[in-house]
Amino acid sequence: MNVTQLFDRDEMFRLSREGMENSLRFFLTINENLLKMGEWQMENLTEHNKRAIETINKAYDEHQKNSRIIMSRIETVVREIIAKVTPHHQAAGAEN
Predict the structure, then answer these.
(1) HEC states along 19-40?
(2) CB contact at 8 A, 54 and 31
(3) pLDDT tens sequence across 35-83
(4) How far apart are CA 3 and CA 13, in angstroms?
(5) N or C, where is the chain less crowded by C-beta within 10 Å?
(6) Under the phi-then-psi rule, with left for phi > 0, alpha for psi from -120 to 50, and beta for the rest, what region is 58?
């Protein structure tokens, strides 16, 4: 058994790309909302701040959810690799 059979390079690239894209969307959303906050009029600032904070919190929650999914998949792939690489011991008593 060789390493290429144990490790799906394309899957890891895909997961890495998804993670980077997810992070980029998150930070772009934050930047867009910060720019919008700077453009609002003073009399509407309180209501706009409340909405912007809600939007930022939603973006953060979505980022956290997506990150957990991606990290879980990476963990599963790594565990599968470790399980395939780790030698299995025979049960005690089966050696006789």
Answers:
(1) HHHHHHHHHHHHHHHHHHHHHC
(2) no
(3) 877 776 555 667 777 888 888 889 889 999 998 999 899 999 989 888 8
(4) 16
(5) C
(6) alpha
State the CB neighbour count (10 A cutoff) for residue 70. 19
Secondary structure (3-state) at 91: coil
Which amino acid does the sequence have at 74?
A: I
Distances (CA, A) of 31 to 21, 34, 40, 63: 15, 5, 15, 14
Please give the model's pTM, rounded to 2 decimal places.
Answer: 0.47
Q: How far is CA 70 from CA 11, 40, 57, 64, in A?
A: 11, 36, 20, 10
Residues 6+ apart with CB under 8 A from 8: 77
